[in-house]
Amino acid sequence: MFITTLNNRTAFDEVFDDFFNRNFNVSKSSDYKTESDDDGVTLTMNVPGYNKKLIDVSVSGDQLTIEGQSNSGDTDGFKKVFTINDTLDSDGIEASVVDGVLTVSVPYAEEVKPRKIEVKVK
C-alpha cells in the first residue's frame, strides 16, 4: 500500500524526487499529489484512518520522511522517504492532517523565490 523504504524505492518515489529536484509544476500518483506555486511545494497524501498522533513528518539532512504508525491490525502503517533539493527550505516545512488528508507544505528558500522587479520610468 504506502510502504516504502530507502532501500526498496518505488517508481512513485522516483517521480516525487524528480519533482523536487527539477521543480515540475504538478506530479501525481494514487498515493499523493504535489503542486508548486511561487511560495513552494505542497504535498497532499490520502491517509484515511490516521490522525496527527499516528503520523510523523521529519527532516534529516536532505531527506523528508513521512511515517504512519498503525494503531490496530487493520493497517500495516506506511513510510515514505523523499529527497529535498537545496532550492527548498527544510526549516520551514509545515504539516497538518484534516479528514484523512495529510498536507505538507515545503517553502522555497528565500534566495530562489520569484520576486518582482520595479520598472522605473525616466
Summed up, the domain count is 1
Low-confidence stretches: 1-9, 21-29
Q: Which value, in Å, is the CA radius of gyration?
A: 16 Å
The protein's oligomeric status is single chain
Overall, the morphology is elongated
CATH C-level category = Mainly Beta
Give an overview in words.
The protein has 122 residues and is mostly beta strands. The chain has a single domain, classed as Sandwich (Immunoglobulin-like), CATH 2.60.40.790. Helices cover 10% and strands 37% of the residues. It is built from 1 helix and 8 strands, in the order αββββββββ. The protein has one helix at 11-22, and strands at residues 26-28, 32-36, 40-46, 55-60, 63-68, 78-83, 94-98, 101-107. The strands form 2 sheets. It has a 5-stranded antiparallel beta sheet, covered by helices on one side. Strands 4-5-6 form a 3-stranded antiparallel beta sheet. Strand 4 and strand 5 (63-68) form a beta hairpin. The longest helix is centred in the N-terminal third of the chain and has 12 residues, at 11-22. It is elongated, with a radius of gyration of 16 Å. The termini are far apart. The model is unreliable at 1-9 and 21-29 (pLDDT under 50).
